[in-house]
Specification:
Strand content: 25-35%
Number of domains: 3
Bound molecules: S-adenosylmethionine
CATH topology of the largest domain: Rossmann fold
Structural class: alpha+beta
CATH class of the largest domain: Alpha Beta
Radius of gyration: 24 Å
Length: about 475
């Protein structure tokens, strides 16, 4: 691999170094005579390397008696290996490439077609050195199943359907059929995919998690932005942390009271790709004279900023322990954010899935916010493309709960939102804040307070992975478990 290199994509520096994709593929129902033929197997692997834009350095393929082939392609970017069992119509293939200039996924349909496979299983692992101290980029993002379609209605040239895992927790996964791969890239922070699904339209995935979809992004973004914006008596200065698609910015700018809206996202490549491939999400918001878009780590930017805001919206990736947004879900960060809120200001945090089977993450955010803010209020809405009931929390030091209904009607009477929102209105507002008893009972159970020290990150990791359905003992129990494991 040699030394790390940098290349430029849309004006941003990409690190062409250890970051890589490892695909572990199981091909079933293959043609046995092809699986027994070392020449045919070598040709299939070389074609796959070409489609991946990888450079073949050397090839070594062996036919075994009575049958079967083992083969290896040395690539400048790492390797492709194959082992075949003609008697079982099965082949196991490993494709591992480093750097951001290759696209190993493009090889799968071609190999599948060459082997005549009827069923493909694919697992994908992101590999490489930690992207920054304390975080580790390497984690399994998917266990996608690539299924051969009987018909020819497919994507990527070989008549196959591909499934991308969209939402997942430690105990479940949901997949989306990919009709078309629109764009795919690995930034310094995350794996970015923009694809088209027949039912949901264009979809943005980061590290294998759905961020938003054409069919229902308005629901998520209206729910994130409008409750606090309409409850606040005069929101003029808005800060958005994350929100790379530009849709939260779009919704904030719908309020005529807004004089300045700052969006700080860590990943310039997400912003650029969304601007190019999902322009309706921002709908001109990036070019609005009231907007300022800053590419920076939200934590560092907020710590350094001297400004105050009426509304701060955290539209970040989920607080998974390995992700770049984790530090923004800590008690220390919330303390800092609080000091950047003007009097009467509100913080809104997207707070993950919330249902009777999955509430650890929400309760953790809530508990952590409650260490800093006097009032924390949960609301929720089912988001179809998240395949989940989603939640948000408004945190503030002023009691606005009694204003819950009246301000909403005022704002709408002012005409700001009338005829513009597709989802949000007064009845919807009230419904989102009206929690059923089972959910209301859960809110202060489970979860833990996240702080910025490493113990907390590890404890969260253990608690999130092991609790079923929650850690009633919260942080204490997770930290005890952590100490036990260390002994
Ligand atoms: N709707 C989404 C969800 O439910 O998870 C959030 C969408 S938005 C695309 C998430 C954004 O957070 C991404 O663009 C990502 O680059 C950004 N992000 C992650 N870590 C960040 C950080 N430390 N500072 C600023 N932005 C960050």
């Amino acid at each position: 691999m040699g030394k790390a290199r940098t290349v430029t994509y849309a004006g941003h520096r990409l690190y062409m170094n250890t970051s890589g994709i490892h695909l572990l593929c199981e091909f079933n129902g293959c043609n046995p005579s092809i699986l027994a033929d070392a020449c045919a197997i070598q040709q299939a692997c070389e074609a796959a390397a070409r489609l991946s834009k990888a450079t073949v350095l050397r090839a070594d393929f062996h036919e075994f008696l009575p049958n079967g082939v083992s083969g290896f392609l040395f690539l400048a970017e790492s390797h492709i290996s194959i082992h075949t069992w003609p008697e079982h119509k099965y082949a196991a293939v490993d494709i591992y490439t480093c750097g951001t200039l290759v696209s190993p996924r493009d090889a799968i349909p071609a190999i599948s077609a060459s082997l005549g496979a009827s069923d493909v299983h694919l697992r994908e692992i992101l590999r490489g050195l930690p992207v920054r101290p304390g975080s580790y980029a390497s984690r399994e993002v998917s266990s996608a199943t690539a299924v051969l379609a009987d018909n020819n209605d497919s994507l990527i040239n070989a008549g196959k359907k591909f499934w991308l895992p969209g939402s997942s927790s430690h105990h479940e996964r949901h997949c989306f059929e990919v009709r078309e791969w629109i764009a795919s890239a690995r930034s310094q922070y995350q794996q970015i995919e923009i694809v088209r699904n027949e039912a949901y339209g264009r979809m943005l995935f980061l590290d294998g998690a759905v961020q938003s979809a054409e069919s229902d992004e308005y629901m998520y973004h209206e729910a994130l932005v409008h409750p606090a914006m309409t409850l606040h008596h005069n929101p003029q200065r808005v800060l958005i942390l994350g929100g790379g698609e530009g849709a939260s910015l779009r919704e904030a700018l719908r309020h005529s009271s807004v004089k300045r809206a700052v969006m700080v996202d860590i990943d310039g490549m997400v912003v650029e790709m969304c601007r190019q491939h999902l322009p309706e999400w921002s709908a001109g918001a990036f070019d609005d004279p009231r907007s300022e878009v800053i590419i920076a780590d939200g934590q560092r930017w907020v710590e350094a900023c001297a400004e105050q805001f009426d509304i701060i919206l955290m539209d970040l990736t989920d607080q998974i322990e390995v992700g770049s947004s984790f530090p923004l879900y800590t008690r220390e960060f919330y303390e800092c954010v609080q000091s950047r809120l003007a009097p009467g200001g509100m913080l809104v945090v997207q707070a993950g899935e919330l249902c009777v089977c999955e509430y650890f993450s929400h309760c953790t955010i809530r508990r952590t916010l409650a260490t800093t803010f006097r009032y924390v209020t949960t609301y929720m809405q089912h988001i179809p493309s998240f395949v989940a009931q989603w939640s948000w929390i408004i945190a503030s030091n002023d009691d606005w709960t009694d204003l819950r209904n009246s301000r909403v009607s005022n704002a709408r009477a002012n005409g700001d939102l009338n005829t513009i929102t597709r989802f949000y209105d007064q009845a919807t507002h009230v419904r989102m804040f009206t929690l059923p008893r089972d959910i209301a009972d859960l809110l202060d159970k489970g979860g833990m307070v996240i702080t910025s020290d490493d113990t907390s990150r590890e404890a969260y990791q253990i608690a999130a992975a092991t609790r079923t359905p929650g850690w009633p003992g919260g942080a204490g129990q997770a930290i005890q478990e952590l100490s036990r494991r260390r002994e």
